[in-house]
Design brief:
The complex is a heterodimer. By secondary structure, chain A is mainly α. Chain A has helices spanning 3-36, 44-55, 61-70, 74-94, 98-114, 122-134, 137-140, 143-150. An 8-stranded antiparallel beta barrel of chain B has the order 1-2-3-5-6-7-8-9. In chain B, strand 6 (123-125) and strand 7 (129-132) form a beta hairpin. The chains are: A mainly alpha, B alpha+beta. Chain A binds chain B through residues 25-26, 28-30, 32-33, 36-37, 47-48, 51, 55, 57-58, 90, 93-94, 118-121, 123-125, and chain B through 1, 5, 8-9, 12-13, 15, 17, 19, 28-30, 34-38, 67-68, 70-71, 73-77, 80-81, 84, 154-155.
Chain lengths: 158, 166
């Protein structure tokens, strides 16, 4: 392998780990904010959804999604989103069950998008999540590297 | 590694979050600008009036505040993140606005401009006018009162504007 290839590869790995860390810090801040804003224990999410309902085109899929799914189940969604963000944040930050953490992030972001909270800012998140799913970043830098050696049959650490 | 994680969690838990935000046009009570929201405002001279739709005739200006542009939406990643740090909240942004002047039953051609939505001060800056977001006062750039603005029902108003503009 040539030196330039190795340099390029190391640069890619470093960048991806850096983005994973930034992504995790962003998620952690968002998750903590939701705990403090009482997303799990109050009806704040219902208020958020009802407000968004007034801003969306009445015939859009997002209105259907919010009216029939998100608003009736706002408390459950508050729990899933808050705990999901915190789990993903910690997983991506320390490289623990990294790909599973990325999959949970994908689930949350996808539901944001179809629930009417879509804009161009979601694109970088989708791109990064797919990179975290595709590449074994937890093996490069994280607890997955050690845990996969200790538990080689556990797919969650791969 | 573990020490770094504990330190990061400690720092983030110590951050203050906003809890007493006001709800303003295109700005939620949770302190966030709505990137994909639109609004149609009717501004006219005289006292404040309520309109349930765009009047068939009269003398007024319509402002259709559009969604933020692609790159402006991308920058909301930073805005959303920095919002968690007290004192660093983003206080405004720019977005496209369509301006239509109506005189009697004549509508001008829609003109594309830039609106700056601000929460400090609570103003919407338009080309040569501005709107006080708290009392809906419509002013020129010398702060002279021109009249008042009123938010119209969004989707019906957009449909009316589209029908008249095409």
């Amino acid at each position: 392998m040539s030196l330039s290839y190795l340099t390029f590869k190391n640069l890619g790995i470093t960048l991806l780990i850096l983005f994973r860390t930034l992504f995790a810090i962003f998620w952690l801040a968002a998750g903590i904010n939701k705990v403090e804003s009482e997303w799990m224990t109050s009806n704040i999410l219902e208020v958020v959804f009802l407000q968004r309902l007034t801003e969306l085109p009445p015939d859009s899929f997002a209105v259907l999604y919010l009216s029939n799914f998100a608003i009736p189940l706002h408390q459950l969604i508050g729990w899933i989103v808050t705990l999901g963000e915190l789990y993903s944040a910690i997983g991506l930050l320390v490289g623990l069950t990294t790909r599973c953490s990325a999959a949970v992030s994908l689930f949350i972001i996808f539901n944001f998008a179809i629930g009417g909270y879509y804009d161009a800012s979601l694109l970088p998140f989708f791109i990064l999540i797919f990179l975290f799913l595709w590449f074994p970043t937890g093996q490069w830098f994280g607890l997955d590297r050690y845990l996969s050696k200790k538990y080689p049959n556990q797919i969650i650490f791969k | 590694m573990i020490k770094k994680l504990i330190f990061t969690i400690f720092i983030l838990f110590s951050l203050q979050t906003e809890s007493n935000e006001r709800e303003l046009l295109l700005y939620s009570q949770f302190g966030e600008f709505c990137t994909m929201c639109e609004a149609v405002l009717l501004c006219e001279e005289g006292e404040i009036k309520n309109h349930s739709s765009i009047p068939d005739e009269g003398e007024f200006t319509l402002y259709h505040l559009k969604t933020r542009t692609f790159w402006s939406q991308i920058t909301t990643i930073w805005e959303f993140f920095i919002k968690n740090f007290e004192g660093y909240e983003v206080k405004g942004h720019q977005r496209p606005v369509i301006i239509i002047s109506v005189k009697e039953t004549d509508w001008s051609a829609p003109a594309l401009g830039q609106a700056r939505i601000s929460v400090d001060p609570d103003l919407i800056f338009l080309n040569d006018t501005k709107i006080n977001r708290l009392n809906n006062q419509w002013m020129d750039n010398d702060n002279k009162t021109l009249g008042f603005c009123h938010r119209l029902p969004l989707w019906e108003s957009i449909e009316t504007i589209d029908n008249r503009s095409n």
